[in-house]
Amino acid sequence: MHKMCVMGVRTSWRTVADGEFFCPDCGGDRNYLRRTGRRRLTLLGLPLLSRGPAGPVLECSACRGHFGPDALDHPTTLRFSAMLRDAVHTVTLALLAAGGTSSRAVRDTAVDTVRVAGFADCSEDELLTLLAALAADTGRLTGTYDAVTGGHCGPQGLDPCGTALAIELHEALEPLAPHLAPAGRESLLLQGARIALADGSYTPAEREVLSTVGSALMLRPAEINQLLAAARTPS
């Protein structure tokens, strides 16, 4: 014998927007409906008094689960891949700006790193052209980049990373860091270390760039020093 529900609360939902997000329950990219609602007290199934607003919520089109708007803080798989690719590209350019490009080993390692990250068609000329363009943008780099010698002229040592370049590193890495596992943050720093070490030991400017990278990735100074020291030891 079924009992009749005499009183209850029913929510009427209204769709106000849609889009794509990473569904926590599905574990992948899905479409969503952004919905708001209004709760009403019901008697024998009939709506009576308003009990106030509900939501907003994101409703997954696949599992129909409801999630708070903060679910949009997690990037979609496609967006995450793009963020990671751009982060590697930014770190590579920062290290080339700090250490110069006179070493063939450094240039080759930089190109290989960017290609593996997702820019499969990246060439050495493309990186050098972009680096020269960045150097021409006043304030981006500390010294003046010499495209002929692959080095810098002008004052060095006052601000090896460059204020604007440090800002770019933080802008590229800080939004990504919360979504990376600790091993992922360490791997990104070590990719930069391999570029810097391709022609020998770290220069002070390269070391400062790598410290900035580690800081933006939410690594502690002790962790950064340990990782950079380990990268110098042949496996």
Automatic annotation (TrEMBL):
Residues 166-227 form the Co-chaperone DjlA N-terminal domain. CDD domains: terB_like. It comes from the Bacteria. InterPro entries: DjlA_N, TerB-like. This is Co-chaperone DjlA N-terminal domain-containing protein. It comes from Streptomyces lydicamycinicus. The lineage of its organism: Bacteria, Bacillati, Actinomycetota, Actinomycetes, Kitasatosporales.
